[in-house]
Amino acid sequence: MFREELIFETHGEGDIIDLSPAVRDVVARSGVWDGQVSVFVKGSTAAITTIEFEPGVLADLRRALDVIAPKDAVYEHDRAWGDGNGRSHVRAALLGPSVTIPVQEGTLFSGTWQQVVLIELDIRSGRTRFVLCTVV
Amino acid sequence: MFREELIFETHGEGDIIDLSPAVRDVVARSGVWDGQVSVFVKGSTAAITTIEFEPGVLADLRRALDVIAPKDAVYEHDRAWGDGNGRSHVRAALLGPSVTIPVQEGTLFSGTWQQVVLIELDIRSGRTRFVLCTVV
Amino acid sequence: MFREELIFETHGEGDIIDLSPAVRDVVARSGVWDGQVSVFVKGSTAAITTIEFEPGVLADLRRALDVIAPKDAVYEHDRAWGDGNGRSHVRAALLGPSVTIPVQEGTLFSGTWQQVVLIELDIRSGRTRFVLCTVV
Q1: What pLDDT is recorded for position A65?
Q2: Region of residue B105 (left: phi > 0; alpha: psi -120 to 50; beta: else)
Q3: Would the CB atoms of A77 and B56 count as touching at under 8 Å?
Q4: From A135, which residue of chain B is nearest by alpha-carbon distance?
Q5: Does A82 touch chain C (CB under 8 A)?
Q6: Which residues have CB under 8 Å from C72's CB, separation 6+?
Q7: What structural domains does chain A harbor?
Q8: B69, C19, C20, C43: which has the fewest C-beta neighbours closer than 10 Å?
């Protein structure tokens, strides 16, 4: 098992970072030829998934998230705590905190247009996000 | 590999159980210092995810699930089988049955406000749910 | 670790294939008695989840996906590229590309009504989908 933590600064709600180059580097450093890599983000207002990293698709995903948990709805979390990020929690729980990708011949077995991404869902800019990559 | 089955009684649709203490205990008993733990629920009308275990957030999640698969919609599953839990199946498929969390220094690498939860989506109260924890 | 690639031809948007028999065969061939199997689909317009493989439930899932990312919405991806599959990308990112299922006593630890499925979300018929099964 090989493990590395990646640290990212995010720039507010809806910021999406392409993790693929960094994850591919971790896999290369691990020396693992055939196996799997799990990518997990710490925290309850961010998420990990795979998507084509294309500005149009990313905008479309943001809009879909706003359908599921709209900006202008009333959130019990916000009423109780005044955090204003009730929707962030809901979206993160639906997307999930991690993804597991096969490693084949030393690289990611994922489509050409299928990138691993970190999605910042919280409303505050300048958050530090800790992403743990585990190669097995 | 270390494996343990956890058994829970749930109290109807929308019941959400914080699995973190039990999962942390399994990890401790496994003796694994660095690795991963997968948490999987058997059955097609329950789900596993991570979320802040705070009553407001949980209420907000329930409402979002009702947007995706509303209580008052007509479900083909219900028309065919009269089960009344068509929405439960849809919600479970979207949330997913499992989550994989890194184990670091003998404990879960997850945020302070990021709990592993079992979400009961079925409409019948008093269901027994089988959750399998696999520590690698 | 044992790995096998499964190849499927899909028949357009909303086609859902029950992977359980094939995944169970891979597990049997692996000889693994206790472990886990990860099922991952290559590409950004398909998804893997678990669901009861019943026509009514599958129709209900398709309708829920149309709520999250409707057919008749305007997609930035389509405006930029004219692909017409903007909704496919959004739905795939929300569902996710993989699922990990425990293997117990040589078979899948999943419910009787809980099948592993490949969901074709792209709009073009006759796509070839590559699914990688990794048994550990």
Answers
A1: 97
A2: left
A3: yes
A4: B35
A5: no
A6: none
A7: 2-135 (2.60.120.460)
A8: C20
